[in-house]
Amino acid sequence: MNRFYAMVAVLAVVLGVGVFALLRTGGGTAPAAAAGPPPTVVDDSFRGYSLGQGRAPVEIVEYLDFECPVCASFATIQMPTIKEQLINTGKVRWRYRDFPLAIHKYSRFAAHAAQCAGAQGRFFEMHDQLFNHHQWAQTGKDPSDLFRSFAQAAGVDLKAYDACMQTGRYAQRIEFSRQEGEQVLVDGTPTFYANGKKLFTNLRRLPSSDDFKAVADSIIAHSPPKPPTQQEREHLRH
Amino acid sequence: MRHRQAIALLALVGLFVALYLWLHALGFGGAIKCGTSGGCETVQTSPWAVFLGLPVAFYGVVGYVVVLVVALVALRPAALAQRPWNVLLAGLATAGVLFTAYLTYLELFVIQAICRWCVGSAIIITLIWIVSLLSLRSPATRTDLSASPQQPDPRV
């Protein structure tokens, strides 16, 4: 019996050391102020980059994590159809909000890279780079150099990008978005809201473009027609 | 006794598997060590990685701790001959297997990604379940041989 308890103790120590080693070898050094949460959070009144027309009757807000593989699948597989069928047709405006998950070492850093690109008007190009070349998220290695090459491919001026990343200029904005997500009960990524209402709470799979089309059509069918703009009224008179 | 020892050792291994996944879910360490398929990341970041507001791995940690503690308590000399401990362990293992079956269903048919650590945990709880069922079939361990009933003499 004593031999058994000795075996339990030895096994516990070996497994404990193993788990500790697994957690310790989690990748490279997290770079600069852009990679971690900021000590304070300030609302800079920014509410995310958006695609589509300002007058679109439906606004979809997507809380995403750039290191999340499901977000990458959604961005690369479903989003092109959604852009073509819903955003470009004026039905839907799509707003991106950051929700970096704690389990991802570089998701804040990636969100920051996208924001720094956004400061130069290249958010969507950087967003596509980060999701189209998502292998970086599987390696656990420091992606600083890779992100610079993505930024370059996205048409970003690297000098301004480097300064932005070094100072962590948008760390507070990203944390504010994450806290906002927590307040509206984001429980994973991606999570979607249509005109403020959480979507697909009972859907047991990743939503498809058809699911968003059904949501948009339903909202449009149940909303009163918007009064025409001044320009449209003048057009009707002639 | 052997059954309970086996359950305790298996629960200890399962505990550390669940502990690693739980600590990872809390943000400790970097990318999860899971090969290059990305299945663990897909599963861990899916909406089903959280159950009743807590990471699923947390329930694994609690479950394995309970099984481990019960198995160790059942290994005390005074408890060795008591069969209700076998029933309790089988009940706990059955609950664990059912929860694992639900999670495996989600992996295969909903998330459509396989997490190797989750498969490892599923194998461990299934082994615990099998051993606990075998313990129900075996006779109770006698701790005091002199107190045991006399066996009839097989010689005629």
Summed up:
Chain A is an alpha+beta fold and 238 residues long. Helix content of chain A is 52%, strand content 9%.
Distance N terminus to C terminus of chain A? 98 Å
Query: Structural class of the secondary structure composition of chain B?
Result: mainly alpha
Identify the overall geometry of chain A: globular
Note the beta-strand portion of chain B.
under 5%
H/E element order of chain A: HEEHEHHHHHHEEHH
Which ranges of chain B are low-confidence, i.e. pLDDT below 50, for 5 or more consecutive residues? 143-156
* Arrangement of strands in the largest sheet of chain B: 1-2
Overall pLDDT of chain A: 86
Question: Helix proportion of residues of chain A, in percent?
Answer: 40-55%
Radius of gyration of chain B: 19 Å
End-to-end CA span of chain B = 34 Å
Number of strands of chain A: 5
Question: Reading side by side through the largest sheet of chain A, how are the strands ordered?
Answer: 1-3-2-4-5
Shape of chain B: elongated
The tally of helices of chain B reads 5
Which segments of chain A are poorly predicted (pLDDT under 50) over 5 or more consecutive residues?
Answer: none
* Structural Rg of chain A: 22 Å
One letter per element, helices H and strands E, the order of chain B comes to HHEEHHH
Characterization of the model:
- The complex is a heterodimer of chains A (238) and B (156).
- Chain A is α+β, with helices and mostly antiparallel strands.
- Chain A is built from ten helices and five strands, in the order H-E-E-H-E-H-H-H-H-H-H-E-E-H-H.
- A five-stranded mixed beta sheet of chain A has the order 1-3-2-4-5.
- In chain A, helix 3 packs antiparallel against helix 4, helix 3 packs across helix 7 and helix 4 crosses helix 6.
- The longest helix of chain A is centred in the first third of the chain and has 23 residues.
- The mean pLDDT of chain A is 86.
- Chain B is mainly alpha-helical.
- Helix content of chain B is 63%, strand content 3%.
- Chain B is built from five helices and two strands, in the order ααββααα.
- Chain B has a two-stranded antiparallel ribbon.
- In chain B, helix 1 packs antiparallel against helix 3 and helix 4 packs antiparallel against helix 5.
- The longest helix of chain B has 28 residues.
- At the A-B interface, helix 1 and helix 5 of A face helix 1 and helix 2 of B.
